[in-house]
Amino acid sequence: MYRIPICIGMVLLLLGAAAFGVSLWDGPAAWHTDMRTLWGTPIALFVLWIGLAHAGTLISAIFLALGFPLDRRTSMIAELSTLCSLVVAAMFPLLHLGIIENFYMVVPFLDARGNFANMRSPLVWDCCSIAVYAIASSIFFVTHLLSEKRESLKKMVRPMSWLLFPLVLWVHTVVSLDFAVTFVPEWRGAFFPLYFICGAIYSGLALVIILLMAEHCRVRLLEKLMLALSWVMAAFWLWEFMLKGTFSFEVVFLGAIVPQLLWLRPIRDNSFVIMLVAVSAILSLGLERYVLVTPSEYNVANAFGWVDMGLVVFSLGLFVTLFFMLRVRLRKPLEGDDVVMGELSVQDEESASPVKGELSNNFHLLRLPLLVGFLAMLLYVLWAVSVFPDPMTSLSVANIVPLCLPLLVLVAMVVLCARPFWLVLNRRTKYAFVALMGVAGVLAGMFWAGGSSVAAPGAVSVQELATFKPAEKVWEARCASCHGKDGLFNEKFVREFYPVPQKLSLERLDSLGTDSLVSVIMHGRINMNAYGDRLTEEDARGLVLYMRLLAGEGR
User: Fold this and answer.
1) Is pLDDT of 517 > 70?
2) What is the Cα–Cα distance from 125 to 268, expressed in whole angstroms?
3) Residue 263 has what DSSP assignment?
4) Quick count: other Cβ atoms within 10 Å of Cβ 513?
5) Count of CB atoms within 10 A of residue 410's CB?
6) Cβ-contact 108, 116 below 8 angstroms
7) Domains, the chain
8) What is the model's pLDDT at position 437?
9) What is the distance between the alpha carbons of residues 479 and 501, in angstroms, rounded to a whole number?
10) How many Å apart are CA 528 and CA 190, to the nearest integer?
11) Is 397 exposed, middle or buried (0-12, 13-18, 19+ CB in 10 A)?
12) Which of 201, 474, 477, 502 has a C-alpha 20 to 30 A away from that of 145?
């Protein structure tokens, strides 16, 4: 049953792998970019897939939290789609960083060398919030998966849904701030968080409906919700047109007009047409995200090419392959004892709503985890605002607020499920878990310690380089924006934008040689502009000598 979609997914994945490799090698020059942001197709795909990811757990958690749980298979399919979409979404910010192994630079944790992420950047809020959401969704999925046979875990599912429900709304609000706080006029607006949340739920509902169709199942309520959200999105698009004058006929046609076919009974009764309507909704939101990230009036440098299309194909292939392979692997625990097909519905309120004693017990289970989570959040806020005593670099509480709820939920979920999970694990699994935590602790210690922070022998500070004033002026005017005034990177820039410059070390400079470095300065490189029309060769050689002094070689 699932062999065909797995084969299709693997073919798409292999076809898109070339575009992904070219993007890693060439950076933003490979894909369609907007001259103001350089975000382009990867970030458009990231926003689309993170939206698709949010709806899965939200659909399962919100119905469960409100006392109207979906059938087991529908819930598990939705939650599995969340995890697979998160994997796909995570690929594109890493791709956009350029140097993937430096992803840890956005983790808001001070290491032994004094490095600390720019907490004023939405990129840091985004990374941490999504990481927490991925961990929390994984815990929720595993707990729900194992709860069928273990009563001790079954009573944890509902309290977890109460924690996940606000987290989903919070995380996509943070994602929207990546756009809303920028200088781009089209992205400004207080309505952006709600706009992003509704768009995410809309596209996510469509994805879950398509996946259920692959199971030969239908949930009419989800189809009605998708129709209702098409009107909500139409209202947002109309508001945006009235406010800013931006309009895309294709987006509105696919996302607001085509879904109105569901008002017709012959359409509603045809599963294949329902699936086409759901596909139309996803195409609409994908196109809308692309138009949002790269406004058409600025698309003069590049055009949507084969690499951009390849990234789309790669993302689709990765999701289809991952989802259906896990679907086959988890077939028995995912479906439970009953194999259901045809039309499904949520349980009625009388049979689904918890009795008063059960509700009280759920609140009792959450008291200690919430208390521990709140204390952890409070301690982190106090620590973070006191990291830098200098008023020019210190953080305000407002810079840390976006991380508060994700941190609280993460700690609360770990505390909530720690004891029940530990009890159901066998001895071998417990030993493996302890060993894994030990390895994680060692790796965390290595990250915190980092390399040596002792200055190299003979190092000369920028202030002492009086004899190299001309080269110093050129460096500050042309090079310091990326490489830093002292050669140690402009950390705020390189952690928030692409690319991360190479380290300025004597070993690297010696390996390249003076002539090679002069050539790079004069003629440019993949991610560096050419300065041959602005500098003489003598200026370039002076810069090379200045770089050696910054790297630690005195005269």
Assistant:
1) yes
2) 41
3) G
4) 11
5) 22
6) yes
7) 3-109+116-341 (1.20.1630.10), 462-551 (1.10.760.10)
8) 82
9) 11
10) 37
11) exposed
12) 201
The DSSP letter of residue 485 is: T
For residue 477, give both structure tokens: 């005017």
DSSP state of 527: T
Q: How many CB atoms lie within 10 A of CB 233?
A: 24
Please answer whether residues 310 and 237 qualify as being in contact, where contact means their C-beta atoms are separated by less than 8 angstroms. Answer: no
More confident residue, 497 or 68: 68
Q: In whole angstroms, what is the distance from residue 230 CA to residue 281 CA?
A: 8
Question: Has residue 318 got a pLDDT over 90?
Answer: yes
pLDDT digits (tens, 9 = 90+) for 424-477: 777 787 788 788 888 877 776 766 565 444 444 444 443 444 445 577 777 776
The whole-number pLDDT of residue 490 equals 58
Q: What percent of the chain shows pLDDT beyond 70?
A: 74
d(CA 165, CA 66): 10
Rounded to whole angstroms, the Cα distance separating 537 from 323 reads 56
Distance CA 85, CA 103 (A): 19
The pTM of this model reads: 0.72
For tokens 């690319």, name the residue.
Answer: 499
Q: What is the DSSP string of 311-348?
A: HHHHHHHHHHHHHHHHHHHTHHHHH-S----EEE-PPP
Out of 34-38, 278-282, 299-303, 516-520, which region has the weakest mean confidence (pLDDT)?
299-303
Question: Residue by residue, what is the 3-state secondary structure of 180-216?
Answer: HCCCCHHHCCCCHHHHHHHHHHHHHHHHHHHHHHHCC
The mean predicted confidence, pLDDT, of the chain is: 76
Q: Give the tokens for residue 281.
A: 């909704």
Indicate the Cα dihedral angle 211, 214, 216, 222, nearest 10°: 20
Closest Cα partner for 239 from 194, 269, 208? 194
Question: What residue type is assigned to position 480 of the chain?
Answer: A
Bridge partner list, 217:
342
Q: Give which of 138, 48, 59, 127 is closest to 93, Cα–Cα.
A: 127
Three-state SS for 460?
Answer: coil
C-beta separation of 471 from 545 below 8 A: yes
CA angle at 57 for the pair 351 and 402, rounded to the nearest 5°: 125
CB 544 within 8 A of CB 517: yes
